[in-house]
Write a structure and sequence with these properties.
Blueprint lengths: L6 H12 L34 H4 L4 E7 L7 E2 L4 H10 L1 E6 L5 H11 L5 E3 L4 H6 L7 H7 L1 H7 L3 H4 L27 E6 H6 L8 H14 L6 E4 L8 H4 L1 H5 L8 E3 L6 E3 L4 H15 L12 H9 L3 E7 H14 L6 E4 L24 E2 L6 H11 L2 H9 L7 E2 L5 E2 L2 H6 L3 H7 L1 H4 L24 H7 L2 H9 L30 H22 L5 H12 L4 H19 L3
Parallel strand pairs: 1-3, 1-4, 6-9
Antiparallel strand pairs: 2-3, 4-11, 5-9, 5-10, 7-8, 12-13
């Protein structure tokens, strides 16, 4: 993966080739560059709005932004603390809008009408938006109005370009500075309630059978409680909870619908393999024992989060970022027994898990300016202003003295009171963290600031350790770990990662395969899990027959080719 440890050198080369005619890049950005000679990173303060010299003279402007990747209440950005400070700097406010119901239906309606918000983050529907030519090219806007955009995205420009050479959206994951791993689990894991482990004497478990045996035993021993043994999320685009476990159980990270061979870099589909069969057969088995939550196939996202927040679910597979709201709700109860422990579960015979993400650049998710935008220049200037380092501190850490502190060595930290305050989702929303800390032009999650502090507050060691409850510390001690990520194997370097970020041309054989295979899995996986055990093999054979009618080879060939192309781009070829 591109390493921004050498970002000055890479940036010099990238700017010369990626943005022809670009001026020096740091003009108008004095003192804000992430590589500013080791000077301290600017702190975010409550009077941060006084710094927008040129922008302050501009007339107020309000734009619309539809973000398909989050589920929070609609709001005007200036109704949040962070949004108000950014408005004071730039004069710009956003009407922030989020999906209700099916995302693809909402995006499809936009495309059919040609009526878009000014700014759009379409999440999984991004290829449809690109195919509809709904985004404007950003190259010239970045060149003329984006010194901070150039600084942050410079090393990644080759990965951001479409086939026509244009940049149509800004991804969310450019690593700036040294990469810092997350001490907690924001990616995939099999989660299990701590009371289950406690009752069993904190056993070290590794395999899927061991995991479900613990849940089955606890549920049987506590039959008087209304407990759900294991639940899944299968709603809208959020199908990873049942689609993705086979690759993780086989010892691979989240490359989407393929497993990529480490030596040959060949990409192979796995939804028709024994890994998927064995995973679904296990769910079928536990369902027959009354352990699986049959409503998984009809629950929506809110219902899923509410079920986990209730404390009645003993286990589930998910990604930390997706279930975080429910996990925070559990934390607020103060009941450590119903809190969860993430585990790197694998199949029998798999020696090493690979749940943790290696450093990566996701280039098929991002935010773009649409053809309906009233003032693209004003929007790109707002984006550029966001990437000033003091504003990245504001967006991730908050205001000094209010949401974070700085010690006499310049290290950022949070007090116990601040940590407790920020466990509340409504507080996160009112400050603006829920609205601004993702889905905008930004430093990637593993980035560091110019003074060595972590860009992401959760990855700052001082914050991570202080955020652990007594229950966290106890269970980590029981398992001989200092952080939750210590329980997982270190990620191997994968220069193409993640393969799911590869964009497929709409209407191409590979893209058609992905849609048809998804539809097929949604049709059959519920049947396979909920069937009587003696019916499973027959239904699996029916599924395989239908799956093998699809153009699997075209998909695998395309993905293998694109993996090779992404490797070449990350290596500067």
């Amino acid at each position: 993966m591109v390493k921004t440890k050498k970002s000055l050198l890479v940036l010099a080369v990238a700017m010369a080739t990626a943005l022809a005619g670009c001026s020096g890049g740091n003009g108008g950005n004095a003192g804000n560059a992430g590589n500013s000679g080791g000077s301290a990173a600017p702190e975010a303060s409550a009077n941060a709005g006084s710094g927008g010299e040129a922008a302050a003279a501009k007339e107020p402007a309000t734009f619309t932004y539809f973000n398909a990747g989050a589920q929070v209440p609609n709001i005007d950005s200036n109704k949040t603390k962070i949004g108000k400070l950014l408005e004071e700097q730039t004069g710009v406010n956003f009407k922030l809008q989020y999906p209700v119901g099916d995302v693809n239906t909402k995006i499809g309606t936009m495309i059919a009408s040609g009526d878009y918000p000014d700014v759009l983050s379409p999440d999984t529907a991004i290829d449809k938006v690109l195919d509809a030519k709904a985004f404007i090219p950003l190259n010239e806007l970045i060149e003329k109005h984006g010194p901070n955009l150039q600084r942050v995205y410079g090393p990644y420009m080759n990965l951001m370009k479409a086939e026509d050479g244009n940049i149509y959206f800004l991804p969310f994951s450019p690593v700036v500075g040294e990469y810092i791993s997350n001490p907690t689990i924001e990616q995939g894991a099999f989660f299990i309630q701590r009371r289950v482990l406690k009752e069993a004497g904190y056993p070290k478990i590794k395999t899927l059978d061991e995991y479900f045996d613990l849940i089955e035993t606890y549920q049987a021993n506590n039959a008087g409680e209304k407990l759900t043994g294991f639940t899944s999320l299968i709603y809208d685009w959020r199908t990873m909870g049942i689609f993705n476990p086979p690759m993780h159980l086989a010892g691979y990270p989240n490359d989407g619908d393929v497993i990529v061979d480490m030596a040959s870099h060949e990409a192979k589909a796995y939804s028709n393999t024994d890994n998927t069969k064995n995973w679904l057969k296990k769910l079928n088995e536990v369902n027959s024992k009354g352990i699986y939550d049959e409503s998984s196939f009809v629950n929506n996202y809110d219902q899923y989060l509410a079920k986990i927040s209730s404390g009645s679910v003993l286990g589930f597979f998910d990604y930390g970022w997706q279930v975080n709201q429910a996990l925070q709700n559990i934390k607020k109860t103060g009941n450590d027994d119903i809190d969860y422990m993430p585990l790197p579960i694998v199949f029998d015979g798999v020696e090493k898990d690979q749940y943790l993400d290696p450093p990566s650049f996701v280039n098929n998710r991002g935010v773009g300016i649409t053809t309906s935008a009233k003032d693209p220049v004003r929007i790109i200037e707002f984006f550029d202003n966001m990437l000033k380092e003091e504003n990245q501190v504001l967006i991730q850490w908050g205001v000094k003295g209010e949401e974070y502190e700085v010690d006499d060595k310049g290290r950022y930290y949070r007090t116990p009171e601040q940590i407790e305050m920020l466990k509340d989702n409504k507080t996160q929303e009112s400050i603006g963290f829920s609205y601004f800390n993702y889905s905008w032009p930004m430093y990637g999650g593993g980035s560091t600031l110019s003074d060595g502090n972590s860009f992401n507050a959760g990855r700052q060691p001082e914050v991570a350790q202080a955020s652990f409850t007594e229950g966290d510390k106890l269970i980590l001690e029981k398992y001989g770990a200092k952080t939750f990520s210590d329980l997982f194997a270190k990620p191997d370097e994968r220069p193409w990662y993640p393969a799911w970020s590869i964009s497929l041309e709409q209407g191409s054989p590979a893209q058609i395969f992905t849609q048809k295979s998804k539809d097929l899995k949604l049709k059959y996986f519920s049947k396979l899990v909920l069937a009587k055990p003696e019916q499973f093999d027959g239904i699996w054979e029916d599924y395989l027959k239908e799956f093998n009618k699809l153009d699997v080879k075209a998909y695998e060939d395309t993905m293998t080719k694109e993996v090779a192309a992404k490797i070449a781009k990350t290596q500067g070829n």
